[in-house]
Amino acid sequence: MNGTRVMPRIFCIANQKGGVGKTTTTVNLAAGLARIGQRVLLIDLDPQGNATMGSGVDKRSLTLSVYDVLLESADVAEARVASPRGGYDLLGANRELAGAEVELVSLERRERRLKEALAAVASDYDFVLIDCPPSLSLLTLNGLCAAHGVVVPMQCEYFALEGLSDLVNTIRQVHANLNPELQIVGLLRVMFDPRTTLQQQVSEQLKAHFGDKVFNTVIPRNVRLAEAPSYGLPGVVFDPSSKGAQAFVAFAAEMVERMRAM
Ligand SMILES: Nc1ncnc2c1ncn2[C@@H]1O[C@H](COP(=O)(O)OP(=O)(O)OP(=O)(O)O)[C@@H](O)[C@H]1O
Ligand SMILES: [Mg+2]
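That is the input. Now the predicted structure with magnesium ion docked in place:
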């Protein structure tokens, strides 16, 4: 790809397993990309609203959110807000979004709503990052339909590979039926503790199975990343010198590098 490209690359950060680091990855990748000069839109597609809060935006005070966009009562351009310190734009979410799941079921083009809404702001961004909920729901499906690729954060634990197969199957089905562009961009090892033998073993298994689909960057377990959301800041902004922040900036650079090769 050359420098004249105007279309953003759209990525889902997805894993149906809960608490594996999706939101931490989305928020810090967004802030990391912003730091290296990329224009980023983060979409919070989880009714928990963690990415919204972690971007420094109070989910309870949102007047418009991704919910309004999915139900076509607002455009992305109206509903987005700036993350005050993150350096990127946010399309936020709150509990209201849980209702969208039910309301969308009876509507037409129900899994394509997000994709269609994003077309209008395509030229504003280099990257769109979608933080998915811990499920393979209609919300996640909207994310997968809109995306070019999926980034899968995972912990190197015993059942990690097993859990991956459901996600891989879903991605295959979406690829076959709804979005022929969709691919797994890569697996990101997160909350990694190199002193744990088991984690090293699982990490080796991952590389053996998935080869260069495993990102080179490894995100360590780092308490600063866990503390940052309570200050409404990405870890990358909260403590740029921490190991976790440095890893996410390195990951942002790796993503940019991979996009050039795609
Ligand atoms: N690298 C890390 N080091 C230390 N703590 C981390 C790291 N990554 C994530 N955490 C912490 O682990 C918890 C789960 O992370 P996170 O919220 O990002 O996961 P998630 O996959 O988005 O969860 P959910 O499935 O509920 O949406 C959070 O408390 C977060 O602060
Ligand atoms: Mg989350």
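The mean pLDDT is 94.
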